[in-house]
Amino acid sequence: MSETSERTRHAGEDGRARQLSDPGRAPSLPGPAPFLAWFRRFTPVSRPHTRLVCFPYAGGAASAFRTWPRQLPETVELLAVQYPGRQDRLQDPCVDDMDTLVEPIVEALTPWLDRPLALFGHSMGASVAFEVAMRLKDRHGVEPAALFVSGRGAPARTRESALHAQGDAALIADVLRLDAAAAPVLRDPDLRELVMGSIRADYRLSETYRPRPDASTGAPITAYVGRDDPDIAPGDIRAWARHTRAGYSERIFPGDHFYLVPHEAELIQDVAAKLGGRGPRCDA
Description:
Elements: H1 3-16, H2 33-36, E1 39-40, E2 50-55, E3 76-81, H3 98-108, E4 117-122, H4 124-140, E5 146-150, H5 168-178, H6 183-186, H7 189-208, E6 221-226, H8 234-238, E7 248-253, H9 264-274
Parallel strand pairs: 2-3, 2-4, 4-5, 5-6, 6-7
Antiparallel strand pairs: 1-3
Helix pairs in contact: 1-7, 3-4
């Protein structure tokens, strides 16, 4: 099952049960209560060398990364970002503006700044991660150890669109264009009602995001993309090199926009290698 199908299936299950228990839910996290909603720590690490903060795609949720921790080195702790309006945050209003989303995430990361942070984002999540990287430096003087951007063209290559202002049919068609496996869920009236709010909000956030063309981070950037991604030309991904004042590298995987589903193990292995990891944890 693709990640788009997973995001809608989990949203439906969690919505019907209201607030199902989540193994990465907040009770294990330190800090003031308002900070707890933003991150899921599926496998806590007592003394991590690095924390990897992962940002989901449009319509996605923290559960997209639930299988990652067991494939990461035991020195890397994963924090998966949980956007409002989905899964166990279904009752929280969706956020459809980049600034409104990013500012509380940056502040919520404050208790985690005792260790180096690396950021990974896929699709919309890549843009969110890029903004978080810049604002961590601006607000806290912290430069992320690495920024991994996946399935997203560089800010300088942004193309205008306004699907968020169209009807549900247009939004659904675009989701299915990228992920046909989501069809059974999006055509279920009950599940569709649960997920359309977050999908529309995320599309609006992505389509109204206007980064500075010259915006950059001091973190090294690694860009990942599927060779057959219908929305990203080779130049779109390479243009990320203009947005870092440190090193740049890229890797192209077989597959389309959701290449990271069938190639999850290889992707995580590449991320771990760039973080200096030695392999998956012993209990994997």
